[in-house]
Design a protein that fits this description.
This protein has about 150 residues and is of the alpha+beta class. About 20% of the residues lie in helices and about 35% in strands. It has helices at about 20, 65-70, 110-130, and strands at about 5-10, 25-30, 40-50, 55-60, 75-80, 90-100, 145-150. The chain has a seven-stranded antiparallel sheet. The radius of gyration is 14 Å and the shape is globular. The chain starts with a strand and ends with a strand.
Length: about 150
């Protein structure tokens, strides 16, 4: 069975630390294609650190409509499951494997936190049945470029 993935390689940048304030710190990667919508939404996937370590993640791609509406900067935000540490300045490879839902605007931080908890549970379930060893080779794309790969 062939799987399809979106893959992004990028350097972790400082953000507004809203994910950290909500209890879900993220690794933020700027996306080159600000006009496009390929890959937007919340995903289950994997993140590879420079040393080769692969960690499961819940990943948001888009403009963060709860805080910025349609005018936000298009960004990839990866919440690495069961990880604590500093990723600033690291160049990561991110595989978007299963589209969990579209981006949504929430009316309260509590509603957003509930959704994030559900996303993390769904990402943990998906990654447990799609091991990192089954991922396709990421290849070499431009930093911040979203590419489609067959697995």
């Amino acid at each position: 069975m062939t799987s399809e993935y979106f893959v992004v390689r990028g350097t972790v940048e400082h953000g507004d630390e809203r994910g950290r304030e909500l209890g879900f710190p993220t690794a933020n990667i700027a996306l080159r294609d600000q006009a496009g919508s390929v890959g937007d939404g919340v995903w289950a996937g994997w993140v590879q650190r420079p040393g080769g370590e692969r960690l499961p993640a819940a990943i948001s791609v888009g403009r963060r409509p709860t805080y910025y509406g349609a005018d936000g900067y298009r960004l990839l935000e990866a919440h690495l499951l069961d990880f604590t540490g500093d990723l600033y300045g690291e160049t990561l490879v991110v595989w978007l494997g299963s589209h969990l839902r579209e981006q949504q605007k929430y009316t309260s931080a509590e509603d957003l936190i509930t959704a994030l908890k559900n996303d993390i549970a769904a990402a943990a379930q998906w990654t447990s049945s799609h091991p990192a060893s089954s991922l396709p080779a990421p290849g070499e794309g431009e930093l911040g470029e979203v590419r489609r790969l067959a697995g």
